[in-house]
Amino acid sequence: MTERDSPDSPWIQAGRLTFLALYAVTVLAALAWAFSNVRQIDPQNRAVVLHFGALDRIQNAGLLLAWPQPFEQVVLLPAADRVIERRVENLLRSDAATQADRVASFATPLSDALAGSGYLLTGDAGVVQLDVRVFYKVTEPYAFVLQGEHVLPALDRLVTRSAVALTAARDLDTILVARPELIGTDNGAAERRERLRGDLVQGINKRLVELASTGLGLGIEVTRVDVQSSLPGPAVNAFNAVLTASQQADKAVANARTDAEKLTQTATQQADRLVQVAHAQASERLANAQAQTATVASLAQVKDPGLLLRLYRERLPKILGQAGSVTTVDPKDDSRLIIQGAEQ
C-alpha cells in the first residue's frame, strides 16, 4: 500500500471534502428548488397558480405554498381593487410625423400616412387629437393569465376603436372648446363634453363584454378614462387667426354702431334745433304779418260807408304823395286808357 492510497493521504481527504461540498451545494439547490414557489404575496398583488399548465387556484395576499416548477407555476397579478394606469400610444402622433412637422413646408408637404398620424376625424369634418389614459382593474384572473402579453395590445386597439367611433359620432365643439362664440348659444355642447369620458368608458367596456361572450375576454374592466383633447398645431394657428379676425370684426362693428349712434344723436339735435328755429321764425313772420295787416283787417270790420269814404279821403293824399307821378282816368271817358304792360 502506497502513501497515496492511504486513507489519511491528502488526496483522499481533498476528494472527501470536495464530495461533501458538492453534496451540500446539491442539497441547498434542491431545497431552494423545492421552496422556490413558497413566497409572501403582497397586499397589492395576488397570485394565480398553474398546475402543469392548467389553472388551479388563486391566492390573495398572504403566504403562498406551491410546488416548484415545472409542477406548478405562479403568476403574480394586481389585486382586485388595484387600479392600473395605461397610456394609449396608438392615439398619439408618431415620432416620424412629429419630426416631419418640424421640417415640413408648403413646398414639401407631408405624406398621407404621416399627415393623418395621431389625428381623429369628427362628425362635422373636423380634426382633433386625443391623449387617452385608461385606468383598469383585473376582474377575471384566469382570462388575464390566458391572454398574457396580448392583453395590453388588445386594450390599446379597443380604446383606439372606441375613440374613433366616438369622435366620428360627435362634432368638434362637443369634444373641446374650439369655437368659444358658440358656447353661449348651445348649452348642450358643454354637457356633451362632460359626457365624453363616460361615453368612452362605456364603449370600451361594451367591447370587452363582447370579447368575453365569445370566450376571448381579457379579464379586465375599465373604471376611468382621462382624455386630453387638443387641435393640430396648424389648426390652432388657423383658429387663432379666425378668432382674431372675428374679434376685430366685432370691434369694428361696435365702433361703427357707436359712430352711427353719435351721428344719429347729432342729426336729431340739429333737426330739433332747425324745427325750433323754423317755429320761431314762423311765429315772428306771423306776428309781423298780423301787425302789418291790422289796419286793413280793422277797416274790413267797419260797416259804415260814410266812415270808409272819410278814411279813404284822409289816407289817399298821403298815399298819392309818395308816388312820383299820378295819372287819373275818367271812368266815363274812354279816350284815354291805362293798359297794363303798355309804354306810357
Characterise the protein shown here.
With 344 residues, the chain is of the alpha+beta class. The protein folds into three domains: 17-79, no CATH class; 80-231, Band 7 domain (Tetrahydropterin Synthase, Chain A), CATH 3.30.479.30; 237-287. The chain has ten helices and nine strands. It has helices at residues 10-34, 95-103, 112-115, 141-147, 151-168, 187-194, 196-213, 233-292, 294-300, 305-321; strands spanning 39-41, 45-51, 54-59, 62-64, 72-78, 84-87, 120-121, 127-138, 220-230. The strands form three sheets. Strands 6, 7, 8 and 9 form a four-stranded antiparallel beta sheet that branches. Strands 3-2-5 form a three-stranded antiparallel beta sheet, with helices on one face. Strands 1-4 form a two-stranded antiparallel ribbon. Helix 5 packs across helix 7 (196-213). The protein is rod-shaped. It is a single-pass membrane protein. Pfam families: Band_7. Its main location: membrane. This is Band 7 domain-containing protein. Keywords: Membrane, Transmembrane, Transmembrane helix.
Q: Identify low-pLDDT runs.
A: none
Which CATH class of the largest domain is shown? Alpha Beta
Mean pLDDT across all residues, rounded?
80
Helix content: 40-55%
In CATH terms, what is the fold-level topology of the largest domain?
A: Tetrahydropterin Synthase, Chain A
The CATH homologous superfamily of the largest domain corresponds to Band 7 domain
Taking the alpha carbons of the first and last residues, their distance comes to 196 Å
Main location: membrane
InterPro entries: Band_7 (IPR001107), Band_7/SPFH_dom_sf (IPR036013), HflK (IPR010201)
Transmembrane segments: 17-36
Protein name: Band 7 domain-containing protein
